[in-house]
Design goal:
This protein is mostly helical and 437 residues long. The chain is built from 14 helices and 8 strands. The longest helix has 33 residues.
Length: 437
């Protein structure tokens, strides 16, 4: 969205010198030239003048445009994305999370090539992400501090400082964000190029929408390969750091009650007979269970993770309920209380087994999308600081993953350009590693 101010060039008779003026006799004065800028009258032959705008007017135009855009952004945040103004919008935390997500999709949604980000898009991203992140400057906490008095004594007062989670994670995310943009800027002069999607090989039909990378006939040079490997290594480290921050923020969010309200209270129904029987058996080995599961696709794996995650929290909830109920009883030696304690211990054991299975699945498949619990936490979260950290780390994680995927595509294209010979003399090609968007 852009706005530009314009004014009609005025003419005056008999002017022979420079003048910066506003005609008071005009019935409709030029508000733009009077308030926001000054116009310079240059004398020409024949007694006519031409109006030339001062350079400061362009700067004012740019400033006004940014102010109008900022007003629009914060109006949507205050209205909670409800443009009717009827108060049916989302909370501030979800509004900021959605704004950061939509901004990232607008700027980085079509990152299909290894090339520097367009300067206009980069300017839009830096400006608008700065507006959204500035909300965190006002999220503070009170801490005690010792101050010196003029008489030489001391007193303890409460001062404000940035909230601990924001103070620890937000500067790190900004640094990782700058490193990712720097990695993209490093692909200015390259030996490879791209052709539009069209003629793609059979093994790449799952990426038919992406431009096809092309390399020289002799392959990439050693220097270019080294740069690619170095960029991939740095991007992978950034990806791990952003994932760690995102996981820690999601772990700190409270589990919304709506998540449990939509579930039945039967762990067997969620897990299925086979997984439930393995978890409740006398001997349990999560690695063996993972090997026996049908995890041939990402969708199937995510489905199993969701089911196990539900069972973990249902068992934890039952364990807490049994423990609270047993402590509230006065007759601690009765058989009823002993039964409650035994049931609580069993729920605790089954929850730990399900958690170990969940950790094994996450280690085996580290690039899984968000689970149902994660999406429920984001949707019902009320903490603005956590919303900023979660959405900012999530979009940086997505950007790092996409950069790695584009580097892997290019490395695969370079390897495929050099046929490999097996021991039998049959020509083969390397198998491309599939990446999850």
């Amino acid at each position: 969205m852009s706005y530009s101010m314009s004014s009609d060039a005025s003419e005056s008779e008999g002017s022979s010198s420079f003048s910066c003026r506003r005609s008071d006799e005009s019935p409709a004065p030029d508000i733009g030239s009077y308030v926001f800028g000054t116009s310079v009258m240059l004398p020409l032959a024949g007694g006519k003048d031409v109006q030339v705008w001062d350079e400061s007017t362009k700067k004012v135009d740019s400033t006004l445009t940014e102010v109008e855009m900022m007003k629009e952004r914060f109006a949507k945040l205050l209205l909670g994305e409800d443009m009717s103004g009827g108060g049916r919008g989302v909370c501030a935390a979800l509004a900021i999370s959605n704004a950061i997500t939509n901004l990232s999709a607008t700027v980085f949604g079509n990152l299909w090539r290894l090339e520097p980000l367009d300067e206009q898009k980069k300017a839009v991203w830096r400006r608008e992400i700065g507006w959204l992140l500035c909300v965190s400057d006002s999220i503070v906490e009170f801490v005690p501090s010792i101050q010196q008095l003029p008489c030489g004594g001391t007193c303890e007062v409460m001062i404000t400082q940035p909230r601990s989670d924001l103070h620890a994670n937000l500067p790190a995310l900004k640094k990782l964000h700058a490193l990712l943009l720097g990695i993209l800027d490093g692909f200015r002069e390259t030996e490879f190029s791209y052709i539009d999607p069209g003629c793609r090989s059979v093994r790449e039909e799952d990426k038919w929408w992406l431009p096809c990378p092309t390399v020289p006939e002799n392959g990439l040079s050693d220097g270019q390969k080294k740069r690619l490997q170095d960029s991939r290594y740095r991007t992978e480290q950034i990806l791990k750091a952003t994932m760690a921050i995102n996981n820690s923020v999601l772990a700190e969010m409270e589990i919304p009650s709506a998540y449990f309200d939509a579930l039945s209270m039967s762990e067997r129904a969620h897990l299925g007979e086979s997984i439930y029987n393995c978890i409740t058996a006398d001997q349990f080995a999560p690695e063996c269970l993972v090997e026996c599961l049908n995890l041939s696709s990402e969708h199937q794996t995510l489905k199993v993770v969701n089911r196990v995650e539900v069972a973990v929290h249902l068992w934890r909830k039952k364990d807490l309920k049994k423990l609270t109920s047993s402590k509230s009883q006065k007759f601690s030696l009765s058989g009823k209380v002993k039964s409650l304690v035994t049931d609580g211990d069993m729920n605790h054991l089954l929850a730990e087994r399900a958690e170990s299975l969940l950790r094994t699945l996450r280690l085996r498949f580290p690039n899984l999308p968000q689970t149902s619990l994660d999406m429920s936490k984001i949707q019902h979260n009320k903490d603005v600081g956590q919303a900023i950290l979660e959405s900012y780390s999530r979009v940086m994680e997505s950007l790092a993953f996409n950069i790695m995927a584009r580097i892997d595509d290019l490395i695969f294209a370079d390897d495929a350009n050099k046929p490999l010979f097996s021991a039998r003399g049959v020509t083969g090609f390397p198998v491309q590693k599939r990446t999850v968007p």
